[in-house]
Amino acid sequence: MTTLNWGILGPGAIALEFAKAIKEVNGSICAVGARNLEKAKAFASMYHIEKVYGNYEEMLSDPGIDVVYIATPHSSHYDFIMKSLINNKHVFCEKSITVNSKQLREIVAAAEQKNLVVAEAMTVYHMPLFKKLRHIVDSGKIGTLKMIQVSFGSCKKYDVANRFFSKELAGGALLDIGTYALSFARYFLSSQPYEVLTTAKKFETGVDEQSGILLKNSRTKWR
């Protein structure tokens, strides 16, 4: 089996967990990049990463990297994914992978053209609990699935400087954690919903503090 060389873009808290997981399965992390070189060096020392970059673009052009893990704010994902693809690298990107569907369509087209893999780090699709639930639903043991109701939330400390509250950094409830609820519901659909209804409560910075989404789907389309 070929060992892929990973490059980590954005050495934040979630990237620490990712690096730990890669090391536990004897994976290879060969580079880390950040705008703050000292932060990148500190991260590299923890996981014995050889190459350290204080410039994202330099890391993405490194020919020794096979796949890039992107853990930067949502607003930067599109640009970094496209630059990774231009440099012939596979991509594993934190959610939300993009801030809108137009960006995602362009990414998919670019990846298909170059025969590269782009994947979103969405835990819902891989957790044993949800796989077991999917198996139960598919078996028909609980009858025909007619409705899914999902509530997901978290408490964020009030700080307008935090990315969670920043419109420029694509903050807000939906792009931060609402994607988990949507992905859970979508996990049990065999096709895209034919109608989507939404409502949102805005925070003073312009991001959504709360979001409600109703997906309508034909009964025959449930798994």
TrEMBL record:
Residues 4-119 form the Gfo/Idh/MocA-like oxidoreductase N-terminal domain. It comes from the Bacteria. The keyword Oxidoreductase applies. Keywords: Oxidoreductase. InterPro entries: Gfo/Idh/MocA-like_OxRdtase_N (IPR000683), Gfo/Idh/MocA_domain (IPR050984), GFO_IDH_MocA-like_dom (IPR055170), NAD(P)-bd_dom_sf (IPR036291). Residues 130-216 form the GFO/IDH/MocA-like oxidoreductase domain. It holds the Pfam family GFO_IDH_MocA_C3. GO terms for molecular function: nucleotide binding; oxidoreductase activity. Belongs to the Gfo/Idh/MocA family. PANTHER family: OXIDOREDUCTASES (PTHR22604), TRANS-1,2-DIHYDROBENZENE-1,2-DIOL DEHYDROGENASE (PTHR22604:SF105). This is Oxidoreductase family, NAD-binding Rossmann fold.
